[in-house]
Write a structure and sequence with these properties.
This protein is α/β, with parallel strands linked by helices. 39% of the residues lie in helices and 19% in strands. α5 links the parallel β4 and β5. The two termini are 35 Å apart. Residues 21-159, 172-312 form the UspA domain.
Length: 314
């Protein structure tokens, strides 16, 4: 288990030497991070991947690169507390998942950038929806939003109150698709189908759209019923076309497609009530760092009733 201030060389070698990329979990404290750690451990076990538990501390200025302070300094005292926290998290996780390979990593820096840097080549970065600084009325913690904004790999935000169901109980992955921008859907669909296959879940692909005429006064708004039916049918054809190659690649996954009329954010939030995982995309531009979320992505991270995975695309 690595406790140094620099990126652990042994772990770096492990990433480059194996095809199985790690699952990284951001640990705030044991109370607020318990669900995230359990979710990350399950994902690692399904993938046959190592689990990295990481904690970033930033109460004091970052430690000088290459220097590991001792406990007799303020920085060392904070690091000792961080490593003690991770030791307890590792012990608790090993007790529940004894076959997992687990590493811990204490980092000096702000949680968002630090976790994103550590998880750059990870299969998945897992974080809790609200940290220890959050109030009951807060929807998503600032550290979680910062982590998503800096991440370069898929990020699982563990939110919602209901525990994920087993496959035999009808578990389901929900994925939102914009059929008018199909070039940005490949990464999202690929991840959603792979995740459904790993868990043995079914998959529901949803496209939600609004009648553009509904934004205007009644006198000039709303398309005729026949035109709306044609627009709806065209969207269904596009959605089925996008899903078709993934159906062939995952023939054992039960797939449902659905086109609904209404505000996409509202419809996807409603659909998340019966889902175990919601998969959405966020733009990642070449040469930039992190994921850019639009209004829809932010709404779902704040209001979805189940865990949400944000997949970088583009």
């Amino acid at each position: 288990m690595d406790r140094t201030g620099a990126f652990p060389e042994a772990l770096e070698d492990a990433v480059t030497a194996t095809v199985t990329r790690p699952v990284v979990v951001g640990v705030d404290d044991l109370e607020h991070s318990a669900r995230a750690v359990t979710a990350g451990a399950r994902e690692a076990r399904l993938r046959g991947a190592p689990l990295w538990l990481a904690h970033a501390y930033h109460w004091l200025p970052p430690v000088v690169a290459g220097v590991t302070p001792g406990g007799d300094t303020p920085e060392g005292a904070v690091r000792d507390a961080a490593t003690a926290l991770l030791s307890r998290a590792v012990a608790r996780t090993h007790a529940e998942f004894p076959d997992l390979e687990i590493h811990d990593y204490a980092m000096s820096g702000h949680p968002g950038p630090a976790l994103a840097d550590l998880a750059e080549d990870a299969a998945l970065l897992v974080i809790g929806g609200r940290g220890r600084g959050g109030f009951a009325g807060m929807l998503l913690g600032s550290a979680a939003l910062s982590t998503v904004a800096h991440a370069r790999c898929p990020v699982l935000v563990v939110r919602g109150e209901r525990e994920a169901r087993p496959a035999e109980a009808g578990g389901r992955v929900l994925v939102g698709i914009d059929v008018l921008a199909p070039t940005t859907g490949t990464e999202v669909l690929g991840f959603a189908f792979e995740e459904a296959a790993l868990h043995g879940y079914g998959l529901r692909a949803v496209h939600a759209w609004e009648d553009p005429g509904s934004f205007y006064p009644v006198a000039v708004g709303h398309h005729p019923r026949e035109t709306l039916d044609e627009m709806d049918a065209e969207r269904r054809r596009r959605l089925d076309s996008l899903i078709a190659p993934w159906r062939r690649k995952h023939p054992d996954t039960i797939v449902e497609t659905q086109v609904v009329t209404g505000p996409p954010s509202k419809k996807l939030v409603e659909s998340s009530r019966t889902a175990d995982l919601l998969v959405i995309g966020g733009l990642h531009y070449t040469g930039s760092t992190g994921i850019r979320l639009g209004g829809l992505g932010h709404t779902l991270l704040h209001y979805a009733h189940c865990p949400v995975v944000v997949v970088p695309e583009g």
